[in-house]
Amino acid sequence: MTDRKDRQAELLLIAVMTIWAANAPFAKLGLSRLDVFIFNSIRYTVAFGVLVLLLRSRTEWIPIAREDRWPLLRLGIIASIVYQLMYIFGLRYTTAGNSAVLLSTAPLWTAVISARMHREHLGWRTLAGMALALAGIVLIVTGSGKKIEFGGEAVVGDLLSLGAAFLWAMNTNLQKPLLAKYPALQLTVVSIGLGALGLTLVAVPAGLQQDWGAVDPSGLGIAVVSGAFSIGIANLLWSYGVKRLGPRRTASYNNLVPVLTFAISYAV
Fold first, then answer.
1. Is residue 214's pLDDT more than 60?
2. What is the arithmetic mean of pLDDT over 195-212?
3. Would the N or C end of the chain have less CB density within 10 A of its end CB?
4. Do 76 and 193 form a contact (C-beta atoms < 8 A)?
């Protein structure tokens, strides 16, 4: 039974990687037609709505213990607000190749943080495997023609992208103790709900300046679909993977994203 559930979690994580990879080229198209802050606000609001509907139909709400309120708030701020802002501005101020490589360090950060926080053994084989996976991603990026150029004007974006990778690793590890107490769906609802609130507040100035009559409907459509799947459903399945397989094993699936992204982008 345990092995079957583990295999199910692994298949779901492959589905998550496919969703995130497919989201990349379409999100880029949506961002070309809609302000970045408005785009993210719509995505998170839609994701929150989808998750609330799922929660009402599938899971009973477990009252949050007083000692878990701050950890939940911290998780939502890190995963759904600060990470998103660092990722967006990192991509804006550096090259796509730099961003892809630096974000691909997330599994390595996850393993290091997991060893520190959860007292998990971090052997040389694990580190060597992750280094080899990162090297493979670098080869894929350079082979695709994406520019990799560290330093210079891109240094701010590089640091932001590296920080985003570290925050995603923190998010993955911070979920583990909370998932032992609360269902993955409830945890995801809280995290995405905080993100929807925070990112909407950040988007207020852009929303007031936006000429809504001139907005391309396709940009809004992409934001809605991206929110429902890449933010809502994918984050829910990711949390389930962390609960079932643990942070380090779950994070290793991130190595599939650059490979699938380039393949899907080429097809699109």
1. yes
2. 93
3. N
4. yes
Closest to 120 in 3D by CA, of 6, 250, 247, 254? 247
Residues 6+ apart with CB under 8 A from 122: 111, 112, 114, 115
CA 24 to chain centre: 11
Q: Which residue has the tokens 């989808």?
A: 50
How far apart CA 147 and CA 49 sit, in angstroms, is 38
Question: Which pTM does this prediction carry?
Answer: 0.85
Give the number of residues written for the chain.
268
Structural contact between residues 78 and 170, judged by C-beta atoms closer than 8 angstroms: yes
Checking if the pLDDT of 65 tops 60, the result is yes
Q: How far is CA 219 from the centre of its chain?
A: 21
User: What's the gap between Cα 137 and its chain centre?
Assistant: 18
pLDDT at 186: 93
Q: Residue 223 in contact with residue 34, Cβ under 8 Å?
A: yes
Lowest-pLDDT choice from 63-67, 86-90, 165-169, 262-266: 262-266
In angstroms, the Cα distances linking 6 to 9, 99, 250, 258 are 5, 31, 11, 24
